[in-house]
């Protein structure tokens, strides 16, 4: 049984799009529409990968990532998805260097880009 | 007592009486010879009694005076007619004495004499000339002013109307004299202006306002900033009103430019938030289009993708439309019926992206869903935009921007509070001054709130600030309800 993938975005359509792409690979998804919701689900679930919007209404996406990075068990791999930052944005580079996020995906993206990142992060034994 | 001593006694009394008169007095006989004279005349003419009494008038007065006044002929006339000549003017310069001005009368006296009384009015004439000079000066000050200066009686009927008033209104002083000033105002202002004149009767305070003055010859009206001041007499009683007006066209033009540049600043601030907000629908469209390119999708999924694309294009378009509306709205300056709730909601929508980026929650508390005021919606939006962006800038680490709208009697009060750093007490009364800014050099023009102030004043409202340093700030905008 695969561990599900968490999708965090306050835009329901954005969650729908990412869900469709991931579900096409036969994987399960869980969605969260706020930072608080995401933190709650992270604390109470087991996720291999998180696709995380950078700007959430209640907290910064990177803050959610920082909390996720402190989890001892089942630490998920986080992909920051954003239309606000760009690929070589210093904020993004620092977060990758600090190990808070594993990858960055700029909106809008192609479905292949998202899948490429997803496949690089999934455990190889699935 | 002998006849001689009686006569002597009489002469002494006669001289005493003559000398007591504070005017120059000469008694003249039919041959125009001086019979007697008082000390006052001798002093003023610098003559001795010996070379005056018994001499002909032609010796006593300089020839030039006799010729210019025709005084000899006048005296003959009085002898002939027996009636007095009064209040003639004479200027007399005795040797070594400054010019003096006299009013003289020639009075018939029994026993073939006339009395020439000359009253020195030099001082009075000088004073009245001084008064006339000051009056002329004041008149030319009023006439030379480029501002409208007019005066009215207590009922508001025009008494004076200067050249600037003639030039700006196209109405001559003859056309307006005696007319009610409020008849020259815009129709919907007449009652208001009439009330100002009523207030001037009992008030000691000037009244400042703005309204249009009709310019019938040019077929329109011009916006003027007015100051009404009561005109008081020496006892403090109102005897009329002085009205000074300044053409606002030039200032309006400058304000318009300032508002436009402020708008550009605001657009710059919003750009970051907007990039994020537009890329979201773009991402949804992009991915949905890619789904449509896949081969084995269901009809239902196909439809859903198309629906998402359409909805998100619309979303992106709406964001752009709001932006355009904000950027252009200042071109529209006609006052009209405006729903303040719509203005607030649209403005909140414009800053929502930026607020989200900074983790700021926006709360709007309303009493009613429609609140009508008279105004220009684009300008009001600019005011709230500016206040919201200031509040957002004051909360770099997130917070709450709360907007509460209350109606009190005939006014609506909008309180905009942030939970940011607040305003230091010393700055509180400066924040509406032009060029006051707490931003670092290069960021913020310092014109924002002064423009808000001018816009709100144009809407006959007021704007105030409350704050405690470290505990956030509240800006209070009050507008009259429609």
Topology of this structure?
The complex is a heterodimer of chains A (126) and B (482).
Chain A (H helix, E strand, L loop, with lengths): L4 E4 L3 H12 L5 E4 L2 H10 L4 E5 L7 H9 L7 E6 L7 H8 L5 E4 L4 H11 L5
Parallel strand pairs in A: 1-2, 1-3, 3-4, 4-5
Helix pairs in contact in A: 2-3
Chain B lengths: L2 H18 L3 E6 L4 E4 L1 H7 L11 H4 L2 H7 L1 H11 L3 E8 L7 E10 L3 E8 L1 H23 L3 E5 L5 E4 L1 H7 L3 H4 L13 H11 L6 E9 L4 E13 L5 E10 L1 H45 L5 H30 L7 E4 H18 L2 E6 L6 E4 L1 H17 L5 E10 L2 E7 L30 H11 L3 E6 L5 E8 L2
Helix pairs in contact in B: 10-11, 10-12, 10-13, 12-13, 13-14
Describe the protein's architecture and organization:
The complex is a heterodimer of chains A (126) and B (482). With 126 residues, chain A is α/β, with parallel strands linked by helices. Chain A has a single domain (5-121), classed as Rossmann fold, CATH 3.40.50. Chain A is built from 5 helices and 5 strands. Chain A has helices at 12-23, 35-44, 61-69, 90-97, 111-121, and strands at residues 5-8, 29-32, 49-53, 77-82, 103-106. A 5-stranded parallel sheet of chain A has the order 2-1-3-4-5, sandwiched between helices. In chain A, strand 4, helix 4 (90-97) and strand 5 form a beta-alpha-beta unit. The longest helix of chain A has 12 residues, at 12-23. By secondary structure, chain B is α+β, with helices and mostly antiparallel strands. Chain B has 3 domains: 3-121, 2-Layer Sandwich (Beta-Lactamase), CATH 3.30.450.20; 145-247, PAS domain (Beta-Lactamase, 2-Layer Sandwich); 252-480, Histidine kinase-like ATPase, C-terminal domain (Heat Shock Protein 90). Chain B has 14 helices and 17 strands. Chain B has a 5-stranded antiparallel sheet with strand order 2-1-5-4-3, sandwiched between helices. A 5-stranded antiparallel sheet of chain B has the order 7-6-10-9-8. Chain B is rod-shaped and about 155 Å long. Chain B starts with a helix and ends with a strand. The chains are: A alpha/beta (126), B alpha+beta (482). The interface between A and B is medium-sized, with 22 and 24 residues.
